[in-house]
Design goal:
single chain, four-stranded parallel beta sheet
Amino acid sequence: MFVGTGSDVGKSVVATAFCRIFRQDGYRPAPFKAQNMALNSYATPDGREIGRAQAVQAEAAGVPCHTDMNPLLLKPQSDHTSQVVLNGRPIGNRDAYDYWKRDSRCEVQGSSHHVPREKKIDFRQEVCAAFDRLAARYNPIVMEGAGSISEINLRDNDLVNMPMARYAGADVILVGDIDRGGIFASVYGSIALQTPEDRKLIKGIIVNKFRGDMRLFDKGRKMLEDLCGIPVLGGIPYYKDIYIEEEDSVSLQLKHRQLAAGKVNVAVVLLRHISNFTDFDMLERDPRVNLFYTNNVTDLEHADIIILPGTKSTLDDLLELRRNGCAQAIVRAHRDGRTVVGICGGYQMLGLTVSDPDGIEGAAVATLPGLGLLPVSTTMTAQKTTRQVTFQFDGHECHGYEIHQGVSCSQGTGCEVRGTSIVRADHCLGTYIHGFLDNAPVIDYLLKDKTTGATSVQDVAAFKQQQYDLLADHVRRHVDVSRIYQILTDD
């Protein structure tokens, strides 16, 4: 089990690396994270929903993703509430304070999903049962914690860190981020704040995101081992040439946010509740493109392509776009000939209206006019669509997945616009399909009139497999993998 001294220290990437390493070494691993809080999610082959990070880890492990790999997913809808997805299905919304103050059995309420008081859900029992099912099918299980393991005020209700490690009998490896500073305090403090029982489970330390000559840390490594009484299994250097999907929206703060001459400028609108921003990873790596995230009105008006991404709160974000002037800027840019693309919630915003009569999203308003660039109207519904899809685009077979609430109807027909449909209208395009821009024919279509460079990006599946191998090689060079195998077999 890989746990962290804090958020964004690299737990997910390290877990992904070991999913690949164990697969390369002839084992049949599978990832597991009991509870994930993320807006990046993925549809499993059987049409359910899990955190995107566990889908990536399953891909690295070479196994199909399944809800047992992430049985509990919390998708923030506002600063105080989250949609609760249990075993791949939404069961309602939960206030953050009430959730963390719960006992292990609690009820979850939503406008149309109410768990009766006499049928309270035992979340701990649910995540442990998922682990047991997974462990019966795969070996080893590569577990991941969440955030910091030293949030002792949440210890009694923690489902994902050390209590889960105790249940699984896991050997725990603590990951610390040296790049942010304070590595000694964060590692030592994280261990010192554990109970004696939990402290015994921590068998090693990995120092992540090292910049510079690793030999400069030789003395620090010995000091850290003496201080903690636990071996440092390696120091992983910071890398820039390996591309693994990011789990946290924290990474968006590092994306460059400016126009560039000589390239196709693609502006992704930076929404407050942006979800599935991994939709743009392949486009971002296209050498013809300068992709950046922004809510700057001037940048939007001068971009060649504007993309409205997915969101967990369509109405809230649409209202904010009208308040900050971005909605008007997008309409003006479209009028001036710029291409506008909407994906999932962004697609809904590009239509004529968005309505939520039953308060599914819990927004302050029930209906808002859209940007009016596509001839569709959307009504939010309690039922959630989660599925993998195959679709045709300009004669090419393409692939993606859907995760959305809401039914979109074409103007004047009263018919639902299915997620596998792509609505085009006057250099504007909308779809419910995530992964839409992972397909080379789609990218080439968007760029064909804007660049004279070569067409076609690398096949996304082949590219990802290559990156998993590069990550595994990088970690093998800098982590004592044989020592980890020894730790796993000592028990």
